[in-house]
Amino acid sequence: MEIVVQKYGGSSVATTDKIKKVAEKVIKKKEEGYHVVVILSAMGDTTDTLISLAKDITDNPSPREMDMLLTTGEQVSIALLSMALNAKGYSAVSFTGSQLNIKTTSIHQKARIKDIDVLKLRKALKEDKIVVVAGFQGVTEDNEYTTLGRGGSDTSAVALAAKLNAKCEIYTDVDGIYTMDPRKLPRARKIDRICYEEMMEIASLGAGVIHYRAVELGHKYQIPIYIGSTFSDNIGTIITNRGGDSMEETVITGMASSTDDIQVTLLNLTSSTESLYKLFGELAAGEANVDMISQMLTEDNKMHVSFTIPKTDVQLAKEILNKWKEEDESIQWEVNTDIAKISVVGLGMRSHSGVAAKVFQLMAENDIEIKMITTSEIKITWVVDIKDELKAIQLIGKEFGLEEPAE
Amino acid sequence: MEIVVQKYGGSSVATTDKIKKVAEKVIKKKEEGYHVVVILSAMGDTTDTLISLAKDITDNPSPREMDMLLTTGEQVSIALLSMALNAKGYSAVSFTGSQLNIKTTSIHQKARIKDIDVLKLRKALKEDKIVVVAGFQGVTEDNEYTTLGRGGSDTSAVALAAKLNAKCEIYTDVDGIYTMDPRKLPRARKIDRICYEEMMEIASLGAGVIHYRAVELGHKYQIPIYIGSTFSDNIGTIITNRGGDSMEETVITGMASSTDDIQVTLLNLTSSTESLYKLFGELAAGEANVDMISQMLTEDNKMHVSFTIPKTDVQLAKEILNKWKEEDESIQWEVNTDIAKISVVGLGMRSHSGVAAKVFQLMAENDIEIKMITTSEIKITWVVDIKDELKAIQLIGKEFGLEEPAE
Question: Which of A364, B164, B262, B334 has its CA 20 to 30 A from that of A267?
Answer without folding.
Answer: A364
